[in-house]
Structures are given as structure tokens and as C-alpha cells.
Amino acid sequence: ALAIQQTLTLAQRDKFRLNVIEAFDQPWKRWLEGSVGGNWGIFDRATGTQKFTFGGAVSNHPYWLAQAIAGIVLAALTFAAAMAAGRGKSPTALLWPRIAALAFLPAVLFGWTLENVPIESFSVGGWLRSLVFAAIAAAAPVLCAAACASARPLPPFATLLGRSGQPRNALSVALGIVLIALVLLSIQDALGLVFDPRYRDIPFAPLTGGVVPFLVLVFSTRRPAGTRAMAETVAAAALATSVCYIVPDESFANWQAIWFCAALLGLAVILIRARDAPS
Hints:
Blueprint: H1 2-14, H2 30-33, H3 64-85, H4 95-120, H5 124-149, H6 157-161, H7 170-195, H8 204-220, H9 230-250, H10 255-272
Helix pairs in contact: 3-4, 3-5, 4-5, 4-8, 5-7, 5-8, 7-9, 8-10, 9-10
């Protein structure tokens, strides 16, 4: 709507002819051109109705109320998890400001994350990936809030994947699973923007919703002693190197890419602070 209305205004002002070549949406183009490729028409393909009124207001998020409620529910669950985990314990210093910092951005972006799932999913694999990313964005603040309240540090990958002989706590296992899934999806997206960036959707919303809670957690708990974790270090290097390519390639004109890269750097900081579990 914005692109067409601005172009029409320019055509009227400078008195040149304009031909809008796509009257109807072409949803099959989403396979070739990403989520926006099938939506350049003035009319909706399924209903035949006009998608917007020329000169009228247009909302990017018509279901904002339901999405806002989803964010409020996520914030409530985050605080509830902290309360449950800290029950019967003396609260750590600045616990509730930390929980607020941990919950704010994930809650704000959760509705946006849910909105993008059907828009950016074109295949079974795409749906699975989008749903897993959304699940990470929902689980990360809740689990990290419980870990903050119980002063439990972020576990290294080796705690979950290796045979350390150490007893496994359910919360640590859940944190490890969510973090590993977040790292795998982030590396996949980062390398995609390095090697095949054309027509690619940028999942800045779910990535931010997953990274921020872990970032707050690692700076709220004491870092364990030990050697630097090799797997986490390699992953952090891959993410940081990808950022060095993506930022100049996409440029600061692509705000979603810059936001995405900032979240990747945050994830790299989380990973570089990891220490291996004792063997």
C-alpha cells in the first residue's frame, strides 16, 4: 500500500504515466521471492477484494490486539516462573528488575513472532522451523526467569550432550535443549544470509526473543570456572564472522538485517562465556 500510494502521488505531481502490473496477489511467488513476493497485488487473490483503500490508513498488524494479549500472557508466565522457582528462597539482589528486563522484549516481540509464522512458512520444513523458533521465543524467557530466581547458571552443551557423570537437573536440561536449538537455527539463518541472501526472510523477532533472556541470565549468575567450551566457541566464531559479512552486504538501509546481526552478536557473547563441564 505504501509503495503504490507513494508512487501514485509522485506520478500525479510530476505528471508521468504509471502502470501497476500486478492487480492480484500471486501467492505461488512466495516459493521464489520470499514472504513478500506473492503480495504485490492490489486485490487479494482468494477473496477478490481490494486489500487497502487509496489514501486511507493501513495497518501492518491488523491483529495487534490478539498479539498484544499473547505478549502479556508470556510476560505473566515469565514472572510466574520466577516466583515459583524462588519460593522459599531469599531473593537475589535486583531479581525483579532483572526479570522485567528479561521479559520485556520477548513479550513485545512475541505477537510479531506468531504473526510471521504463517507468512514466512512455505513448506513442511519451513513450518517446522518457524514453529520451533516460536517455541524457543516462548520458552526462553520462562526458563531463564526460573534460572535467575534459583541462581542456576546456564549449562554448557557438554552437560546435555556429553557423559560428564554429573547429576542432571530438569531446568538445566531444558535450558540446554532450548539454547542448542536456538544456536542451530541462528547459524542456519546467518549462513543463509552469507551464501544465499536473495529473497530471504530475516527472523529478527524470534531470535531477539530467544537471545535476550539468555543474555540477562549469563550476566545475572556467576560464570563457572573451567576451560572455554570448544563447541560454543566455534559457534560464536561462526556467528561473529557471519555478522562481519552480513552488515556491509545488506547495509544499514536494511534495519531488519542490522537488528538480526545485533542479536547474533548477543548470542555470540553468551556462547563465548560458556565453560566446559568437568569430565
